[in-house]
Input
Amino acid sequence: MAHYSGPDIAAVESGFGSPLGNVLRILAYMAVVFVSATLGFMAAGWSVGDAAYMVTLTIFSVGYGEVHPVNTSFLRGLAIGTIVLGCTGMIVLTGALVQLFTHIQLKRLLGIDRMQTQIERLTDHAICGFGRIGVQLAKELAAGRSPFVIIERSPEKLAEAQALGYLTLLADATDEDGLAQAGITRARVLATVLPSDATNVFITLSARSLNPRLHIIARGELPTTESKLIQAGADEVVLPTHIGAERMAELILYPRTAQFLGESPQLRQFKTGLAEFGLDLEAVTVPMDSMLAGQTVGEAERLGCGSFFIVQLDRGSAAGAGQSFVHPGEDVRIEAGDTVVLVIRGSRVAAGAVFNTPRPPAPVGRGYAPRA
Output
């Protein structure tokens, strides 16, 4: 079962049970001792009132004196048993009450009750862990002011998240109770980004059964896991290794993009806006031997088969001055060394391949002569 508590409180509860549960169990034990002892005295001929009064005096060790003489072996044995069992129970009950009050004060001091209340009030929120990817995810969600809950079974990582001011829950995401306490039925998104594909599949299955309308984003390490996560109920699957390799390929194919975007917040915001429509903004320098060198903008876009269109063309010169063609017409000719700004639809790698494909050699033979 999940608990809204720090590591020390969780250790106490896991070792001895919840403080409230301990008090209830001891009260039940004391009720059994009280009723049994009362019935015993009544069996010796005492009235209900006298028997209950005698048991109460004995359990609480008041010592007002005996109601009736205890002058038989049965009554003496019953009195001894009531003293041993009743007094021991009262000592344990006192300790349990102290534990309960301490537990309540600690929760108030640490703000755990407040955090639990905030989680229970959340709707349309996101749920994620706090591992290597979860840390960055939480940072971005916090920057975007999107409500979220961190569900984490590691007390150390949970303490880090709490220090950053995040709402946290000490629980195991593979446990349906933990997901339920994180508000899975009211959540909008679940991001399961654990490094184990099997665990992510299990969490996806559990979350989907608890909330059929939930949007689930799952992490996969192996490409073969993607189909399994989709079958388990994931709406989207992210493959970090694939994304990393794709990003490296983009840096190789589009080394001018970072320089072109620079630190301009407007261009970066524009690039983010394009991404929402499945488009991307990249800048590429035309190699000297590119087949696009010498082609017009219209011809280049037709060679790309609709995978990109050119929105700007920057051309330098030996003197240091240069030209810039914003929204160039189809008849503008592309030269080697030009920086071409592209809006890409689909695969950025495929679009980059068009620019990096070398110009085919000119045919040489009877009736042909190579160009100078």
